[in-house]
């Protein structure tokens, strides 16, 4: 699956169509569930980055249960967070809040504090769209900030 990393590099360089072509050529060659999930997640990420938001959500949804069934817990959290962020981007705050809360629960259960903070930041964004400057919105931003600062990533994450 070394070629999967070429797809990942193309994605990270902003060459989304090229990344999707690599992914499509590799899906049938995936030699494990983990590889299938990696490729599926990468496909969803390229769709999101290319502005194909609903397509990204549609690509991610079936992967969540597949990750859970195969005990890929961190990846499940990532997929939940990506789905929630997708719903935020299309303006469906109810679904966004649901998926982002699920991601936070997964990250907390695995003690993945930085990922939890990222999900809380995204949840704050969804809550802001629903009700700007509400106590819940501010609470999520404050919790995310506290985790980032505690882990030494506060300034970098919040500056950008």
General description of the model:
With 160 residues, this protein is mostly helical. The chain folds into two domains: 1-51; 73-160, Serine Threonine Protein Phosphatase 5, Tetratricopeptide repeat (Alpha Horseshoe), CATH 1.25.40. The chain contains nine helices and no strands. The N and C termini lie far apart (33 Å). The relative contact order is 0.09.
Q: What helical percentage do the residues reach?
A: over 70%
Per the CATH scheme, the topology name of the largest domain is Serine Threonine Protein Phosphatase 5, Tetratricopeptide repeat
- The arrangement of helices and strands along the chain is HHHHHHHHH
Rg, rounded, reads: 16 Å
List keywords for this structure.
9 helices; mainly alpha; Serine Threonine Protein Phosphatase 5, Tetratricopeptide repeat; 160 residues; globular
């Amino acid at each position: 699956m070394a070629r999967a990393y070429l797809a990942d590099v193309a994605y990270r360089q902003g060459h989304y169509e090229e990344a999707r072509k690599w992914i499509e050529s590799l899906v049938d060659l995936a030699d494990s569930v983990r590889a299938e999930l990696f490729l599926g997640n990468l496909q969803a990420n390229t769709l999101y980055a290319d502005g194909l938001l609903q397509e990204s959500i549609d690509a991610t949804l079936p992967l969540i249960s597949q990750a859970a069934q195969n005990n890929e817990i961190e990846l499940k959290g990532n997929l939940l967070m990506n789905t929630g962020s997708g719903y935020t981007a299309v303006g469906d705050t109810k679904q966004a809040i649901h998926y982002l809360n699920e991601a936070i629960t997964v990250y907390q259960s695995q003690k993945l504090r930085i990922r939890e903070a990222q999900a809380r930041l995204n949840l704050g964004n969804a809550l802001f769209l629903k009700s700007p400057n509400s106590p819940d919105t501010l609470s999520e931003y404050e919790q995310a900030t506290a985790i980032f600062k505690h882990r030494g990533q506060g300034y970098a994450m919040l500056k950008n």
